[in-house]
Specification:
Elements: E1 5-16, E2 19-31, E3 36-40, H1 47-54, E4 64-66, E5 69-72, E6 75-76, H2 82-88, E7 93-96, H3 100-103, H4 110-121, H5 126-139, H6 145-148, H7 158-170, E8 176-180, H8 188-205, E9 208-213, H9 216-219, E10 225-230, E11 233-239, H10 240-245, H11 250-257, H12 297-301, E12 307-308, E13 314-315
Helix pairs in contact: 4-5, 5-7, 7-8
The structure holds adenosine-5'-diphosphate and magnesium ion.
Length: 327
């Protein structure tokens, strides 16, 4: 199958007064049409910078970006002008941000903001756009959409605002949506409802989705494949089921342990100690060695390569975890 998005060796650095922040250190990823992939890792590991780089939304300076290849739907993103990107964003790829309050315009009612999507990217009239907006609000489960159309962002609850963002992202039926921590600001019940809507629209429209989160439980029912990121590098890449039943990287195992109901009851995972290292002081060798209970001298000296485990899985670790029955 042809990829919808193909990213090869993406690097992003931020030269700062205190040193160079290597936010993204050469990652490869691909998304097929209609597929949901997840990028998972703790805060600061480079997930948002990756997504902004793909959308070409990083301002430079301060960001310096490089990729060997970055193609979307047969187009070379690296060679596209800002004008061409403006047309692409919203129409062919769109983004759902964590914080709807800052993503939405505070002084424009949400209905009008939805109208703008239709007016900018289609030939609809104002009347048609308004009807389409109300329909879009209904599709994401906003009750009384004719009334809510006139509400300003601050008049809506967090969950309703996030639904509006989802409606905007799907409005023009893009081929790819990047959702960066789309439910992190919401409480658990609302989070589940919003994820359900996101998944329903994704499947009905056949939209490819990049779901970015620090919380593996969010991807449990949604993602086909998962990329686990740590300190700017992919450390494990696997189909969702394999990752959950048989994590190979100690970091993945640690992330799984923070969502106990996902893991087999026979597994007693230890929580990951300490914090993500400062991006200005990444450890020698494997970046995870300072927090890893399987660390050996090799790990402190030599960065493991990302290697194929099988046709579908990749891993960056000197001492892969065995099957779940060996431990
Ligand atoms: N404008 C910037 N200047 C300097 N460093 C930045 C900037 N934006 C992001 N970073 C750094 O890049 C790293 C990755 O950030 P980010 O992608 O936001 O992480 P995540 O989304 O995984 O929490 C972090 O160490 C962050 O501090
Ligand atoms: Mg982020």
């Amino acid at each position: 199958m042809n990829e919808l998005l193909n990213v090869q060796n993406l690097k992003v650095i931020f030269p700062t007064e205190r040193g160079i922040v290597r936010a993204v250190e050469g990652i490869d990823l691909c998304v097929h049409p209609g597929e949901c992939i997840a990028i998972v890792g703790e805060s600061g590991c480079g997930k948002s910078v990756t997504s902004l780089a793909i959308m070409k939304l990083l301002s430079s300076p301060p960001a310096l970006m490089h990729a060997d290849e970055m193609t979307f739907d047969g187009k070379n993103l690296l060679q596209m002008s800002e004008k061409q990107m403006l047309d692409l964003r919203g129409k062919d790829m769109s983004m759902i941000f964590q914080d709807a309050l800052t993503a939405l315009n505070p002084v424009m009612c949400v209905g009008r903001q939805l109208d703008e999507m239709f007016l900018r990217h289609t030939k609809m009239t104002r009347t048609e756009a308004k009807a389409a907006s109300i329909k879009a609000l209904r599709l994401v489960g906003v009750p009384a959409p004719e009334k809510r159309y006139h509400d300003y962002p601050h008049q809506l609850s967090g969950g309703m605002r996030q639904r509006v963002l989802i409606a905007m992202a799907f409005a023009i039926k893009p081929k790819l949506i990047i959702a960066d921590e789309p439910t992190t600001a919401l409480d658990v019940t609302i989070q589940a409802q919003v994820l359900d809507i996101l998944q329903k629209l994704q499947r009905e429209n056949g939209t490819a989705l990049i779901l970015i989160t620090h919380d593996l439980s969010v991807v449990a029912h949604m993602a086909d494949r998962v990329y686990v990121m740590y300190c700017g590098k992919i450390v494990e890449h696997a189909p969702l089921r394999d990752l959950f039943t048989d994590p190979k990287h100690p970091y993945t195992q640690g992330l799984l342990s923070s969502v106990p109901h996902l893991t087999a009851s026979s597994n007693r995972f230890v929580q990951i100690p300490d914090n993500v290292p400062s991006p200005l002081k990444k450890p020698s060798g494997c970046y995870f060695h300072t927090r890893c209970s399987h660390c050996t001298p090799e790990c402190t000296q030599c960065m493991p390569r990302l290697t194929d485990v099988d046709d579908h899985r990749q891993l960056r670790c000197h001492h892969p975890l065995g099957g779940e029955h060996h431990g």
